[in-house]
Fold these 3 entries.
Entry 1:
Amino acid sequence: MTEALSVGVVAPQRACFDEPLPLKGGGQLERYELVYETYGELNAARTNAVLVCHALSGSHHVAGRYADEAYTSGWWDNLVGPGKPLDTNKFFVIGVNNLGGCHGSTGPRSMNPFSGKPWGAEFPFVTVEDWVAAQARLADQLGIERFAAVIGGSLGGMQALSWTLQYPERVRHAAVIASAPKLSAQNIAFNEVARQAILTDPDFHRGHFYAHGVVPVRGLRLARMVGHITYLSDDAMGEKFGRSLRHGKTLYSYDVEFEIESYLRHQGDKFARQFDANTYLLATKALDYYDPAFAHDGDLRAALAAARADFLVVSFTTDWRFAPLRSREIVRALVANQRNVSYAEIDCAAGHDSFLLADPVYHAVLTAWFDRIEV
Amino acid sequence: MTEALSVGVVAPQRACFDEPLPLKGGGQLERYELVYETYGELNAARTNAVLVCHALSGSHHVAGRYADEAYTSGWWDNLVGPGKPLDTNKFFVIGVNNLGGCHGSTGPRSMNPFSGKPWGAEFPFVTVEDWVAAQARLADQLGIERFAAVIGGSLGGMQALSWTLQYPERVRHAAVIASAPKLSAQNIAFNEVARQAILTDPDFHRGHFYAHGVVPVRGLRLARMVGHITYLSDDAMGEKFGRSLRHGKTLYSYDVEFEIESYLRHQGDKFARQFDANTYLLATKALDYYDPAFAHDGDLRAALAAARADFLVVSFTTDWRFAPLRSREIVRALVANQRNVSYAEIDCAAGHDSFLLADPVYHAVLTAWFDRIEV
C-alpha cells in the first residue's frame, strides 16, 4: 500500500447549464450553475470516474485543501486521495455542491432572474431525484457516460441509490453508506423541529433575510444542535463528554455547565455563521420526501428492480439516526432483485457520524471494494 | 376487583410555609406556598398516605376532575381512584405542585417579596432535593410522619428515590418508574436544546417577559416538540404516524405535510399557551443536576446505602429517554445494599410515555405491589 497522501491544493470549478431542468415538485429551473471539484485524472477510456454525493451540510469540497486557507480539508479527505480507500491514483473523483446549496451552486442566495433579487424562500423545492438529474448533466459536460462508482453517506447515500434507479446504465457500482430507503417518522420529527426553529426565528423574514441584512442565527443554531444530538450515539456522547462539569462544580446558572452543552453551543454557533437557512430547509425537505418505494405502494423490492449496479451497503452499529436495520432493508430489497450486494455492519462507537471517520475496519471494507472495481 | 371509578370532583388546596427553606444551590426561600390535592381519607393511625411526585410538566392535579371544567382529568387518573391500582379506598393519596412550578405553588410567576415584581428568572434554582424537603414540610403540616409509599415516574421517580435517601425513616415503600439515577450526556443535550430555544427567544426578555406582556411562545413550543420526540419510541411514532401524508400527496411547502409534523406542532402550541418558560428552565436544570452518586465519587451503591424503604422499580422496553438499563443501575445498587426490590421491565410500545398509560401488565404490577402494602 502506498503512503496515504493528500490530493493537495485544489480549486473549485464551475459548470453552467442553460437547458431548463424540470423539477419533481413541478416547474423547472431555467438555468443553473453547479460548483464542483475533481481529484485524479480521467483516463482515456473515461471509465474511472467516481461521483461523491454530499449529505445535509456537505459540499463539493470533498478532499484536499484550498491554497489560500490553512484549515479547509475536504469533508472526506480521509477517504479520497492517493493511496487512500478511494484512490485518486486509480480513480477520477468528482465532488459537486447540490442544487439549492450554499457553497457556490445555484441556490437560495443566487439571483432569481425573474425578480432580480436573491431567490430566498422562493427557490423551488429540490429533491434527491432533481439533484441526481443535475449531476447527470454535469457528467455529460465532463464527458462521462458511465460512472465506475457513485458513493455517498446519509443523504448522500440516498443520491447514490437514486442514481442506480434513475440512470441504471450509467452506474457500475454504488456505495450506500449510513443511509435509509426513506426517513422514519422520528427522522422527520427531528427535521421538523429544526425547520420550525428556523421558520419561527424573527430574523428569518419568510426566507428573505438577505434583504434585511440579518441571518436567522438563533434558528440555525438550534437546528444544528438538534442535528448533532442525532449524529452521535448516546454512548459516544457519554464517552466523549459524560456528565463532566466544565467548572468542576455546579454553577446554578444557565451558562455552560456540562461539557456537552459547550460542545453543542459551539457546533451551533459555528454552523449558524456559515450555513444558509434556506438551504437547510430545502435539504431537510429533500430528506423527508425521499421514498423510492412510494410510487410502488411501499414495495421497496419493486422500487429497486430498475437497479443494475453492484452495491456496497454499509451501516454502523451505534447509528440510531439511520440504524443498521434501515440499511438491511435496502440490502434485502436488492438481493431480492438478484443484485450483487456487499454489506458491512461496522462496530464503530461514533453513531451516524461514523461514516465520516477513518475507522480501520470501515476503511478496509471500502479499500477492498474499490480495489475490485476495474477501470 | 371493584369497578374502577374516578375520585370524582376534586379541588386544590393550599399550604403556606413561613419558615425559610434552605436550598441546595445556596440561599433560601423565605416563605412559600404549595398547592396540593388529596384523594381518599387519611386513616386514624395516619399510616395510609401515599405521595405522588410529578414529572417535568405535571402538577398536583393527579386524579379526578374540577367541577367547573369538563376536560381536566388528573394526569394519572388511570392509576389513582377507587378500585384502581393506587386504590383510594385504601390509601390517602397526595399530589403536590413542586416549588418553582407554574400550577399554583410558589414559582417564577409569584411575587418576589424583595422586588415587588414577579420572580421571573430570579427565582432560585430548585433541585430534586429541595422539592423533597418542601414536600416533607407539607407532610408535617398534614400530620403524616411516615408515608406508606412515595411514587413517581421520570423526574417524579427521582423524587421518590431521593425521599428514601433524605428521609429514610419516613418512607416505607418507594416506586421509581421510568427513571434514572442521573441523566446521560444525551439527556442533558436534549434539555440544553430546549433551554436554548427558550433563552434565545426574543420574547424571553431574560426571564422577565411577564412585564412585557409577552410569552416566549416560539421557544417553549420548540422545547416541547423536542421533548415529545424523546417521550415516544421510534416504533411508536412509526406506528402512530408513519410517513402518512396529511393531504395524501406531497405539497412541496413548509405547511404540515406529514401527520407527525401536525402532532408535534399541536403539542408544542398547546404547551406554549399554558406552561411557564421559567418553570420549564428550572425543571430541566433540576433534572440535569440530579445525581445522588456525585457526592460518593460516582458510587451509586454507596449513595443508596441510606435507603430503608422497600422498592418497586419499573422500566419500559421502548423507553429510550430513560432506558431499562438505567433502571437496572438503580436495582443493582439497591440489591447490593440488601434492599427489598421488585423490578418489572414492561413490554409497552409507547416509549417513555408508557409510564402514564394503563398498560395491563404495568397496572397489574402496580396493583399487586400496592395490595401488599399494609396500612
Note: Chain B is about 35% helix and 15% strand.
Entry 2:
Amino acid sequence: MSAVRRSYTRPLDIKRGRVDLSHGSGGRATAQLVEELFIRHLDNPWLRGHDDSACFEPPPGRLVMTTDSHVVTPLFFPGGDIGCLAVNGTINDVAMAGATPLYLAAGFILEEGFPLSELERIVASMAQAATIAKVPVIAGDTKVVEHGKGDGLYLTTTGVGVVPEGVEIGGARARVGDVAIVSGDVGDHGVAILAQREHLQFESEIRSDTAALHELVAVMLAACPDIRCLRDPTRGGLATTLNEIAQQSGVGMLLQESAIPVASMVSAACEFLGLDPLYSANEGKLVAVCPAGDAAQLLEAMRAHPLGAHAAEIGACIADDNHFVQMQTRLGGRRVVDWLSGEQLPRIC
Amino acid sequence: MSAVRRSYTRPLDIKRGRVDLSHGSGGRATAQLVEELFIRHLDNPWLRGHDDSACFEPPPGRLVMTTDSHVVTPLFFPGGDIGCLAVNGTINDVAMAGATPLYLAAGFILEEGFPLSELERIVASMAQAATIAKVPVIAGDTKVVEHGKGDGLYLTTTGVGVVPEGVEIGGARARVGDVAIVSGDVGDHGVAILAQREHLQFESEIRSDTAALHELVAVMLAACPDIRCLRDPTRGGLATTLNEIAQQSGVGMLLQESAIPVASMVSAACEFLGLDPLYSANEGKLVAVCPAGDAAQLLEAMRAHPLGAHAAEIGACIADDNHFVQMQTRLGGRRVVDWLSGEQLPRIC
C-alpha cells in the first residue's frame, strides 16, 4: 500500500460509491481508497508508513509463513464474513504449526461495481478480528477487475509467526497409540454457509464458528508441550484432515462415532441437506494428536478455554499399512472414513 | 498446501484436462493437483512437507513483508506471463526496502474450466523465475471459482526478506539536493501488454521488462550504502512513483525530460497509442534517490549490471511546499508531472 496522503477534491463516497477500475490503477484513486478506507480501519504504524513493504524485528525462533485465498460466497453469513474469516483462518494456519502469529498481509481483488459500503464492512470486520487477535495487518494490495470477471471481492491473506523454542509440531509426527482430540462441535461453518446460500431457516440460526485459535493453542502447549500434530479441519472437514495426518504420519486411525461432538441443530440440518458433518468445513476448530498419557491433562486445559469447552477425545492412532481412517459406528460396525471425493460445497472459504 | 500423496486411480490429464470445482475442495482432487502439478514444478523441502505452513530459520536482521495480487490480462504476453511477473514483482517489492528476499508464498484463484496445460505453463514459469532468483515458493493455496466468476487465473504472491544491518531505505527519506536515478528505459511493460491486448504489430516486438531486481539492489547498496529511497515504478509508472516519494519525503522534484530513457520503439508506440511512457508500468526497473555526491559512483555500479545498463540520472529533489514533481521539457518549458488520474490501462499487473 504505497499510496500516500493527498488532498482530494472530494472525500470517497463510501455510502453510495462503488469500486471502479481507477481504484486499481495505482494512481490517485488508489491512494484515496487506501487512505480513506483501508488505513482508516486497519490503522497501524506500518500501513501509515506508506511503503510497498512493512518492516519488523522478529522475536528469536523459527518463523512460519502461510497463505490462503478466500473466495467464500456469500461474503456475509451468520457468524461472520470474508474479512474476519480470512484473518482468523490465516492466524489458525500459523497457530497449527505451534507458532505465535505475528503479522498479516492482505491482497484484495475487487470487482468493478462492488459497493464501497460492503468493502468497508469487510475491512472493518478484518480490523476487528485483527485487533481481538492482536495480529496486525501490516501490508496490503488492491487490484480491480472488470464487472463480470470476479464475484465482488476475493481476499488472500498471508501470515507469519514464530515457533517457541522446543515446540515441534507437524502432520507427520503422529505415532501408533497416540490419541486424536477435537476442540469442539464439528461442521458448523459449512452448514451455516449452505443454509445461508439456500435461504434455509432452522429452528435457531446456525452460525459459522470462525474464530482465531492461537490463544487456545498457547494454552494447549503449556499443558502438553509434546503435542504431535495440530490442524484446523477447514475445507474437506474433519474426515479429510484426519486422513491427511494418517497419510503423512504413516499410521491408521480408529475413531469412535459416538465421541465426535456435533451440535444437534447441525446434525439435523446435515440430515435434511444430505451432508455429512465429518466433511463439512470448520473455521474455529482444531484437531490435536498427542501421546495417550497426556490426553487427560490436555483435554482439561482445553475445556477451561472458551474455544475448547466442548473438546473431546475422538479416537486413536493404530497400526495400518493402508493408513486408513476407520470409525466404530454407533451401531457397533466399522467403516472406512475416506477422503472427501469431488466437491461437497464449493467456495466454502 | 496440506494435501498429501495418495495413489490416484489415474494421473492428472494435464494436456487435455481442465480445472473443475473439485480441485478447490480441499479433498482428493486438490491433493492430486498439488502433488502432480504444483509440487512437481515448485519442488522444495517445504512444499514436500505437506503442512499448512512452512517453517524457516531467519538470518539476523529486520524482516520485511510485502504482498501483491496479480490480475494481468492477457496471462501470457511478450517477455513473460503472470507466473514470472508475480515472482519477480514480489521479489522487487522486498528488494525496494533494501532487503534480501528469502521466501515467497502463492495463493491461486482458478476459474472453473481453465486448461491445466496453461496452469502448468504458469507454474513452470514461476518455478523458473524462483530458481533464477534463488527465492523459493514455500507455501501455497488453491481455490476454484465457478466459470464466469474469474478470468482464468489470479495469483497473489507474498514475500519476506531480511534487511542487512545498517541499511535504512524508505520513501520518506529523500532530501532537498538528492538526485533521482532510474535503472533503465521506462514504459516497456505497459506498452507490451497493451500491444498484445490490441493485437498491434510493431517493427520489432515490444517485450515486458519483467525481471527480479534484488541482485542489482545488492550491487547498488555495496556501491552506495546511503541510498535514501528505492521503488519500482509499476502501476502508475515513473510519474506516480516520483510523486509518491515527493509526497512522503515532503520535497519537490525537478526532472529533465531529455534525461529520461525511453526505448525508441516504446516512444513511437506510445505516440501511436496516445499513452505517456511516464505513466506506463514497468516490471523490471527501479527508481533510486541518493545524495548528489554518491550519484556518479552509484550510476557506474548500476551500469556494470545487466539490469542497470541504461541507468540514468533524471532529476533532483528541490524545496517545494506543494511537493510537486516538475519537468524541464525538451523545448525548455516546465510542466507539472501529476499523479496518474483515472485509469490508463486496467489490469496491467
Note: DSSP finds nine helices and 14 strands in chain B.
Entry 3:
Amino acid sequence: MNEALQYQLIKKCSTTKARLGKISTPHGEIETPIFMPVGTQATVKTMTSEELKEVGAQIILSNTYHLYLRPGHDLVEEAGGLHKFMNWDGPILTDSGGFQVFSLGDLRQISEEGVEFRSHLDGSKHFLSPERAIEIENALGADIIMAFDECPPYPCSHEYAKASLERTIRWAKRCQDAHHRSNQALFGIVQGGIYQDLREQSAREITALDFPGYAIGGLSVGEPKEIMHEVLDYTVPLLPENKPRYLMGVGAPQDLVEGVARGIDMFDCVLPSRVARNGTLFTSHGRVVIKNAQYARDFTPLDPECGCYTCRNYTKAYLRHLFKAEEILGLRLATIHNLHFLLDLMKKIRQAIQEDRFSQFSEEFLGKYGSR
Amino acid sequence: MNEALQYQLIKKCSTTKARLGKISTPHGEIETPIFMPVGTQATVKTMTSEELKEVGAQIILSNTYHLYLRPGHDLVEEAGGLHKFMNWDGPILTDSGGFQVFSLGDLRQISEEGVEFRSHLDGSKHFLSPERAIEIENALGADIIMAFDECPPYPCSHEYAKASLERTIRWAKRCQDAHHRSNQALFGIVQGGIYQDLREQSAREITALDFPGYAIGGLSVGEPKEIMHEVLDYTVPLLPENKPRYLMGVGAPQDLVEGVARGIDMFDCVLPSRVARNGTLFTSHGRVVIKNAQYARDFTPLDPECGCYTCRNYTKAYLRHLFKAEEILGLRLATIHNLHFLLDLMKKIRQAIQEDRFSQFSEEFLGKYGSR
C-alpha cells in the first residue's frame, strides 16, 4: 500500500468497463471517474479556488515545465509549495514537463540522459532528465506526480515508438529511484503509440515497476478517434484493477464518456477552458459559438438544464455582448460554464455507474450532445 | 421632492465642508460620500456583481456612449434595462455620452443642435443631441442619469469656456424637457473651466433649473491639483445643500479625501481599476508596482491592513507571478484590491465624519499615503 495514495474500487458497470472509485491523497479524496481542470501556470485560467470548488473541481493539474521556468520551482517551494502558493487546498497533480519539452520541436534534443531544450519565454538553455523532473516535482509538492516520459508524435514508426517506449521505461525506473517524498504518489506512464504489441510491452514493463497509479500517454495527439478507442480497448485491461488509470490530455465531453466506458478513472485537458475563452460553450445539446449573430437578442440562459453560476444569472445576449466587447467577465463566465459542464457530466457518470445504468446514460448523452 | 431620488443630509463636519448623507433611489440607498466603480461596457472590468458587493460598491456607473454603440440601447431596453442585462440590482448612474464624444477630437463636430461623431469601433456616423442622449439614457434605465453637456479641454480660453457653458445650460434645459421617466433622476452639470466668474454663472443658471442633483464637470482634465482644489473651493458653496454633489472623473485616493473635505458626495473614475490592470496597487502606505523584482519572494500580503479577498488569500510573490505570466486572475485580484481599498476609504471617511474627526483622519491618511 502506498503511503501517499490509496485507490478504492467501489463498483463496476455490468455492461462496460466503467468503474466507480475513490482516491485518497494527502489533500483529500477524489471520486472517480473525474476530470481535472488544468492550471498551467499555478492558476486555472480566470478562476479562483473558490470558483473551482463551486464548479465541482476535486483535483487540479499544474505543469512542471511552466512552473520550472516561471516563477521557478525553488520559489514555489520557498512559498510553502504549490498548494499554498496558489491558495488551493485540494489535491494537485503535476505532469513531468516531458510533454511540453517534446512539443518544442526544433528547440529540444533528446538523449538517453534526458532532454536539452530552450525556453519558449527567453530562449535560455535548460536540461530535463528523469532525476531533474522529479526534483522539480518534489519541490512543487503536488499529491500526484508523473514520471518523465517521452510522448511520441502521431504518426510515428513502429521502430521509433519501440525505442521511445523502452527509454521511457528506463526513465520511469530512474524517476522511481530519484523520488524521495513519501507524501507524493509517483505514477508511471504507458506509451507505445498506436501499436498493440508495443502497448502490451509497455504496460507489462511499467506495471512490473509497481507504481501506485498508471497513465496512458501518447493519445489524443492527432490520431482518429476510432484508433484512440481501439488503443484504449486493448491497453486498459493490461493495467491492474486496484490502481487508478489516467488518460492524459483528453477532455472533450464525448471523449470522457467513451474513456469511462473503457475503464479510465482520470482525465485532464486544457480544451474546455481554452475553447471557453474563444467563446465555444458546451451545452446539453452540443456546442454553442456564443459570438454568432443569432444570440444577439437571445435573452435566455446558455443552457436551461445547467445550474452553473453563468446559466443562473446571465443570458446568451449578455454573454455575446461581453465576447464582442472583449470583456474579461466573458472569459470568466464561459470558463465557469464549461468546467461546470464537464465536472457535472462526470458527476452524472458516477451516479449512472452507481445505479448500473451507465450504458443507457452514455447512449442518451452522445445522442443529444453528438459523438464527434 | 423628486420621485426618483431623495437626498438626506445626516451630518456636517465642524471643521471642513465634508458631509455625511444618504441618497435613496429606486434600486436602494447609497451612503455618501461614495465612490462609484465604472462599468463602461455594462461590466466593471473583471468583476461579477457579487464581487462588487463584496468590495462595498453601492452604486456603479456605466457609459451611454459605449452602450449606445454596442450592444445598442434598444437591445439593453429589450433585455429589461441595464440592471437586468448586466445582473446588477443596485443603483446605477449613466453619463450622457458627452464626455466621450468630445474626447473623440477630430472625429466629432459640435453645433447648437448637438454633436456629430464617428464611432471609435467602425467609423460609422452618429449624432448625439440633448434629446437623443436622454432617449438613450431613458432606454438604459439607470437610477441617475446625466444631462448632455460639453466638457471643454484644459487649457481653454475664457471666451470658449463661456460660450460652451452657456450652450451646456441651454442643453440642460432641453434634457429636462426630453426626460420623461419618473423613476430616473436627471442631474445637471456645472461647467465653466477654471474661471471663477464662469463657474458662478454656470452654477447660478443650472441650479435655477432645479435638478435633483448636481455634478461638477470639467475637472481632472489635466489642470494642476491646486487649481482643481481652488475651483471646488469656490464652486461647491454655490450648490444647494439639500441635493447631492458629484465630482465627475475623479478617483485617486488622495483626491477623494480632498474632494470630500470640499463638500463632494459622489465620485467616479476608471483610474483604480485601470491602474490595477497595469499592476499598480493602492495600499495604506502608498502605491505598489507589483511587477517590481523586490516582490518576487515577498510571501506577505499586499497590504496587511487590508481585509479584501486578495489580501486575505494571496501573497505579493503570487500576485507578481500572475502579472509576469499575464494571467487573468492577476487582473481580477488587483481590481478587487483597488476597488476595495477605495470603497473602504470612503467607509472610513463616512465614519470619521460621523464621529466628527474627519480633519484628523484626512491628515493621517494623506501623511501615510502621500498627497500627490
Note: Chain A touches chain B at residues 41-43, 45-49, 70-71, 75, 78-80, 85-87, 296-297, 299, 309, 313-315, 317-318, 320-322, 324-325, 327-329, 331-332 (CB under 8 Å).
